[in-house]
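Q: What does the assembled structure look like for these inputs?
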Amino acid sequence: MRKYTPKDNVQKHSYYTDRFWVAPRVPREAVAEGSHFASVVEAIGTQAKECYIEVGQLVLQIESTENFAVLQTLKEQCGYTQCSEQSAVDYLAQDGEFELFYQLLNITEAKRVRVVCRIKEGEAIESVVPLFKSANFAEREIFDMFGIKVNNHPFLKRIIMPDDWEGHPLLKTYPMIGDEFASWYEVDKIFGKEYRDVIGPENRDQSRIDRYDTKRFSRVGYEVPFGADISEGEKENPIAYSETVLVDYTQESGKQLDERR
Amino acid sequence: MQQPNKLTPFFENLNFEREDNTMVINFGPQHPSAHGQLRLVLELEGEQVVKAYPDIGYLHRGIEKMAENMTYNEFLPTTDRLDYIASTSNNYAYALAVEKLLGIEAPRRAQVIRTMLLELNRIISHLFFVATHALDVGAMSVFLYAFREREFAMDLMEDYCGARLTHSAVRIGGVPLDLPTDWLTNVLTFCDKVDYEVEHTYGALLNENRIWKMRLEDVGVISAEDALSWGCSGPMIRGSGIKYDIRKEEPYELYSELDFDIPISERCDSYGRFMIYMEEMVQSTKIIRQLTRMYKDTEPQLMAHAPQYISAPKEEIMTQNYALMQHFVLVTQGMRPPKGEVYVPTESPKGELGFYIKSEGEPYAYRLKCRAPSFFHTGLLQELLVGTYLADVVTIIGTTNIVFGEVDR
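A:
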């Protein structure tokens, strides 16, 4: 029987894990009284469901519907004027949710806050482009890579993948070498659908080696002419050395001029 | 519109549609000054840009997806391919993020070497910037001179790690090798050379050059507010008068012990940014000189001691059974960091390069997000280019110093 692989998460998994091994957790600290982060937590108030410090940065977990309000508070009251990054994490297989995070920077205090929220599959999130223009590209990337719709985005369109692409590559259900659609995409684009039978699907396995393909694979030590057909076995090529390079000077050579002799 | 799915020739680069009085032109992705694979769709009214639409993705290799399917050590050489002009800064940013996740710190000698390599990479990248920016604008000779020094810097990198472009010279937890003999003297000679050339060659050719100033001054003006809002970082934000350098403000590695200045410019234009790049090279040589002095009083240990995550030194592996067993497990299965998430920003030559890593305790990262400075600088183009003239478009693309390896990832 073939090994069963779960379809909802095709990410590579460790083939062996100790049964008794429990992964430790990166320590989370409580927000210290009187620190800069304490004032941030105070400004956010009850909108933060949970807040802690992880590796020197404040993490605020909020409701996804309040993302705009929270970021506005952070920008206008706490001085977090730059949104340096935002993206998502796919938890569809476990919880049926995406986790979105916004990474904010306060230039004057040199502090960073990460605002984290979760949305269900198929839900949309409110755009933060009116607050941070950097969200323009970042939200398009989220849409492209995860298929998360962003409400009120000025130009929500695929950014990295082609416009007519199907599927969202960073989902855990998406295999690393691409799906069925990906294997036909370039064939259809370049030659047309009617050539599918002639060309065949694109082989997207990057570790593929074809020993009979003498055009794209080198055969170090067993060289054959470019494009030679070796499927029926190859011709013996005895090793031959060039006769012009190695000149035996002990012998009388006919190539030398008479005067030099 | 022609059927795009046939192998029939059609003029892809001349998208000549007239609406009202505007013309839509397609700039790139094969344009020599498009810095790789940038495609810009520009709507022109006469010679003035009225709408710009940067189209990216021509160099997309799915590096973030690859990161989810590779162990942490396996992924490190892939980070070279992000910003391939200064690969060590990517290796370092990634290694630092994983180290923060693991809660380990590299030994002091490794830190000295890493900081030196980072600054050397900054010089390599900045020389590349000066060269290509000048070439884009039309100053050919600067390109030749700057690439000469860049070759010397790459020779130094080659002496250290054997590679010239994709270094992988940093490992998670330290560095793989100690400096070769004479490397320190060579790097000091190189620093003197760079200082001299920045002042007497590139500086003399460009700083007060009338044509250069005409092409760069008041071109690509970004206000401080816009720079913040668009997520600019590095020389792009310092060129708008905001003194923010991650090396100074959120110091990592040895930067808190080093003495260097952060050049800023209040001009907000391309010329100001160019001057920042020139000054940063001089500051980098200053840092490298300090580091060569620090190198001498360090212990020879190169990799952090964390047997759970990092293989023991080779001598121990070859002599001690338990070290060999741990090494075997780390090679075959990969390290398993604790559960948690980190975002670690570093100051790469182009700006804030950060890695967000979400770990679920598996040897494969659950999610890795690379925050590339160039990605956000490309986004800025859609606003920055509007209202400028077609001739300035090239200058503005040059001044953002975008590298498509990290834009598309």
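Residues 126 and 141 of chain A are 15 Å apart (CA to CA).
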